User: What shape does this take?
Amino acid sequence: AQRVTQPEKLLSVFKGAPVELKCNYSYSGSPELFWYVQYSRQRLQLLLRHISRESIKGFTADLNKGETSFHLKKPFAQEEDSAMYYCALSGGYQKVTFGTGTKLQVIP
Amino acid sequence: EAGVVQSPRYKIIEKKQPVAFWCNPISGHNTLYWYRQNLGQGPELLIRYENEEAVDDSQLPKDRFSAERLKGVDSTLKIQPAELGDSAVYLCASSPAWDEQYFGPGTRLTVT
Assistant: This one.
């Protein structure tokens, strides 16, 4: 079985402070991992995926297979980063599992 | 482009009544997903279609839920009869392949 764990329901940081949203997964094979974001009153959308190793809106995420983690990081939080963030795993047979989400609140 | 379209956006029904949700995916997207999202939770996959074939419906409560995707384009998800615990947001997503998913706005269902 595959599982995604986001241990924090809410993360509050001050503007300009570093951000790290945690994601741990459980999967026996080689997973594809994603971060999705949902801004207020908008639909869920892809932020980034590990396979492309890109930085989107200043966010990066590195897959650590040893620690089975895919934490999302940004060096300097901005107010517009406030949103719900979901980590997702695509495993066998392209089955997709989402975490429970972390609400990021950036305090001005 | 409108993206993934869902209707209705909101639905309030009494328990034991039937309800249906409709989804129009992005043109050319062969893969279509239905998710249920309970309050404070992440989306939970109900069913995934590749064209008109349901390739993963292991999480669909088949005693009361049904879905179809005629001609491999639009899809309908039905609940009959609805129960109080079915209150949730029902999300539709489509994908050109198996990776990035494009989500619709969702249908918020309230069962009273």
Summary: Chain B touches chain A through 24 residues (CB under 8 Å). The CA atoms of residues 63 and 80 of chain B lie 9 Å apart. The longest strand of chain B covers residues 88-95. Chain B is about 0% helix and 50% strand.
